[in-house]
Amino acid sequence: MAADTIKRVSPFLDSGPHTTPGTLAIVALSRDNLIPVYLQDSKGAHDGYAEGVVVNTRYGSFPHSTLLNVPWGSQIRASNVDTGSRGRKRKRPEGDAGDAAGEVNREDAAANAVKQAATASSGFVHILPPTPELWTASLPHRTQVVYTPDYSYVLHRIRARPGTRIIEAGSGSGSFTHASARAVYNGYPRDGSERKGKVFSFEYHETRFEKMKNEILGHGLDGLVQLTHRDVYKDGFLVDGESPEAESIFLDLPAPWQALPHLSRSRPQTAEFAADGEKPWVSPLNPKKSAYICTFSPCIEQVTKTVSAMRRLGWVNIEMVEIANRRLQVFRDRVGLHIPTERGANLTPANVGEAVARLAEIEERFKEHSKASRSGGNSSTPTAAMDVDTNGDVMADANGAPYKIWKEGRLITKGEPEVKTHTSYLVFAVLPREWSAEEEEAAFKRWPCGGEEKVIGSLNKQARREEKIRIHGGKNKDTKKKVEKDVEAESKEAAAEA
Amino acid sequence: MYSVVQPNGWVALKLPSDTTKVLQVIPNTTISLGKYGSFPSNLIIHRPYHLTYELEDKREGESFCRIRVVPASELYADIFAEEETAAACSTPADDSDRIISATDGVEYSLVDPDSGTVVARSNREIIDDSARQTLTMEEIEELKRDGTGAGKEIIAKLLLSHTALDQKTSFSLAKYKLLKTKKYIRRFQVLPLDVPLLGKYMLEEKDASRVLDMRDEMIGLVGCWANVHYGGEDVLLEGPAAGDDEATEKERFQQLKEEVKPMTGRWLVIDDTSGFLVAAMAERMGILYKEEKDVNDEEASTDAKMDEKDDVHAAEEYPSEGTKAENGEEMTKSAGEQVHHRPRSHDFQVPFSQTNTITVLHAANQPNLSFLTYYGFDIQNPNHPPHPLVNHLLTLTWLQLLHPETDASYSTLPPSVSATQLAAMKPNRRGTYHRKRRRFARTRHIVDSARAGNFSGLAVASTMDNISILQHALPLLAGGAPIAVYSPTLEPLVELADCFSVPRRSAWMNPETAPPETVGKTAAELERWEGNDDFPLNPTLVLGASIQTSRARRWQVLPGRTHPTMTDRGGAEGYVLTGWRARPAEGRVEARGKHTAKRRKVEDRGASESAAATPLSDGMQVS
Fold first, then answer.
1. Most exposed among A174, A418, B501, B583, judged by the fewest C-beta atoms under 10 Å?
2. For the residues of B55-116, what is the DSSP string, one character each?
3. Which chain A residues have a beta carbon less than 8 Å from that of B218?
């Protein structure tokens, strides 16, 4: 039993202090160029590489042996790997290797010794522990992806917290699945009966479902994510006939309004549900808690239908928003004639002063030139020396001090060249729990009314006065002052209300 | 989170005027909603959240108003009627004349479901409400006093006595009704005061600057990018063995330090939002709310006591929430008693979990975490009743982090007396003795574990200079740990991002331009780089620094009238800088990439500029 229960925690939830074989790691080439890699401890040459499994990127080759057992976040130097002489079967031009954004080879290795990787003179990557954010940025696309700006807001709004049971339909590319698994995680259930936070994910598309299943398993998220291959419009959200008892729901479906009736607390009053009237109704929602929902639809028509269906099914606090996210790039805007020639600098005058000085200088030179030509001299006078700009390569300012390019220029921000202007509309709503007359009666018995002692909340004039009199007997001086103050505050309040 | 309203718990009441009232539900009191009326607090205790109630008229012989749950079908009656009308007349021919002039972006609805089609007329005629209203002020006041039908009667009367009612277009009519409804309908909704609602309330109705204008979008981004989540089951340090006597006391101090083996699942937070950020992070880690007791179990166990004085009962059962003065005395008493009954652990037993913790660094002597009181946690209370934050929230000052030896509570050894002397002490002095020793052990542990670093992530929302914060916080982070810095304004983050710019990193790596002090130092030594004018921070310690902002745009969704709301909150936008803690390789690392000068010449100025200044742009790799 012990072997079964001591399960490795997913690298997404606890990645440990360093990289280990068999787990997922993210190789960061640059901010937007991330490669997910399943690290392997290879026993011998692999796919023609003497160093074992190798990640090839435009910034060099990285045998897995150099990526393993290093602290997360480490900068890894590239290795000199003989890419030329290995089997010619999959020849590709070297220059293109980078555009393929790296290639991970995992085929069975021959059982001979792994060659020690030799460090290359240049090139490096960083190795990062997987998080839903990094995974979302690097994942293999299957459908439209729910990106971090959207899912971070959605999970916050639908109250996905440790211990929450969340329904997700469809799974899609799995970005939301990973993020929601992290949000609701409060430990792996020790056995089937233990109730922990869990993601109930439903996918209609069979290939996507299979891919997701492997991914969940590979990422150690089984036990936290229950994946079901299902048409939820038709068959609802029960898993093996049992209720997931969900408190949060995220629907990324083309027609959420067709799935909504299944998310009712009692049998919906429509023809299709009345048909199987003999079976008792099992709601997929937690009967004790309010259910929070978010639907994710790109078109306004979908929203209108969804909202209308929600109203009829008793959802309240319906709100629709869309998220606009912008990433900003930080630059140094280097403009001016005093700046040494360098890449990225704008060699135009920085201000009117510089412009005037330059014009005057040209004017002066022109005069001298014409004077010189008039006097017949055709030699290169000091002008030649003046033409030589301060310098090109040395990067020093006029005084010879090193020119600090990283500090020069005004700090500015710009949006990215391409912006996502619309992802989807998010419809949020809440379905309160059912509250029967018996429950109300019991609660009323437990908390009887009529014996109220004081008033809280916003008080009107009379109530406040009565309250004061009751507490202080309306006698001592302090009370009077207080009452006066209150009256003042009141009159202000009254004015504000008016 | 609780499934029903707790006695002495905090809730938010949403009123028809769209204002929110935040209050503590003290049993046996009357909750007043101002002009909308009042009702006994006992009527919402142990009732579900999110129900909409309507105040009923007082019954005969009762001194209070009962409340009635308003079903959703009633809430949406107007919209349903409208939808049906639209479905009935499928040709929207008369729509051409409509002029929609919704300037306030409110949801308005049609009045009369019975009449079927409402003749639409443009509202070019400006209707002066007061002039056309035939009911006099006195009559309205009288109706309000009678207060029948939860305000619906007065609304109906107002509409009927409006002389120009038939001149209104359906839209202006709907608006007029909505206006009057908001003013007179006696409805309210009970909402749980969780972090999203508290944020919304602070932002839109109270003082936005107290939470540094942090909107939901930003909390979501900070929480996700800092990868804040449940950090694993509690791990407690073993206490000193039983019979540990005074001889081992010295060793014990040493032990306190040695046993710090930083585990994962610990987050570092710098919070100048009065505890709002800490609350949001705690919510994500599952340590903000107390575990819910089953209402039925609780009832069974307390039923016997029910007949006793109700006040005492409530205070005993929910000691932590009874922050109001009356309950205060009983609260400390009961808490004190509890401590006595428990077999007392060794003074140097560290109460904190080693994982799933939040460590808060604060600038003042005491941390300002006042928002946590809404969740039943008071950082100042030394004998705190059970609450998850007690064992998972560690706070220390910047002084304690950077110069612990100068901090008295860390460096002053606690008193130590023999068991016989201790037995001879007066009870209250003995209590003080133990308290001092326990506080010492706590402080030691907090400071030592914080200084040992290895934090799993960093979340910052501070009014202090972020560069100075990161200078000391970066070395404390584990490799690959995510960083999320929130700022209400862009400029501080731009400065921070510039510290990690590509040109700066290249200059740092280049022996010619690197600060002379750094030459020959190892990467580990450079982690503690104290910064100078050229390099405020070690630019190689952060990977992928990038700034973003999000904004949720709200829409009104009504049949045929769906559009974005016309106004929204302005003020600070809010920005987040994200990145990862990198562990630079030893020595100089050369970048690789094809510096194709030819290509650069063809590109326009803007593109070449970005090649020079974008952090790790695509075309090349710069160390």
1. A418
2. EPPPPTT-SS--EEEPPHHHHTHHHHHHHHHHHHS---GGGGG-----SS------S-SSS-
3. none
B194, B223, B621: residue with CB nearest A152: B223
CB-based contacts of B546, cutoff 8 Å, min separation 6: A31, A327, B497, B577, B578, B579, B615
Work out the number of other CB atoms within 10 angstroms of the CB of residue B160.
Answer: 10
Which residue type sits at A256? P
**Residue numbers in B near A449 (CB within 8 A):** 40, 42-43, 64, 66
Q: Are B264 and A17 an interchain contact pair (Cβ–Cβ within 8 Å)? A: yes
Per-residue pLDDT of chain A (498 residues; tens, 9 = 90+): 333 444 578 999 988 888 988 889 999 988 888 999 998 887 777 777 777 788 888 888 898 888 998 999 999 998 888 766 655 444 444 444 444 334 444 443 334 456 777 788 788 999 999 999 999 998 877 678 899 999 999 999 999 999 999 999 988 888 999 999 999 999 898 877 788 999 999 999 998 999 999 999 999 998 899 999 999 999 999 998 889 999 999 999 999 999 999 999 988 877 777 766 677 888 999 999 999 999 999 999 999 999 999 999 999 999 999 999 999 999 888 887 777 666 666 678 888 998 999 899 999 999 998 888 877 655 444 443 443 333 334 455 555 666 788 888 889 999 988 888 899 999 999 999 998 889 989 998 998 887 777 888 765 566 667 666 766 655 554 444 444 555 555 555 555 554
B43 interfaces chain A, CB cutoff of 8 Å: yes
C-alpha span between B358 and B378 (Å, rounded): 15
- Rg of chain B, C-alpha, whole Å: 31
B582 contacts chain A (CB < 8 A) = yes
Helix (H) or strand (E) holding A248: strand A248-251
**Phi-psi sector, B588: left (phi>0), alpha (psi -120 to 50), beta:** beta
- Please tell me which of the candidates B23, B28, B549 has its beta carbon nearest to residue A451: B28
Strands (E), B106-212: 187-192
Dig out the tokens for A20 from the structure.
Answer: 């280990």
Element (H, E) at A80: strand A75-80
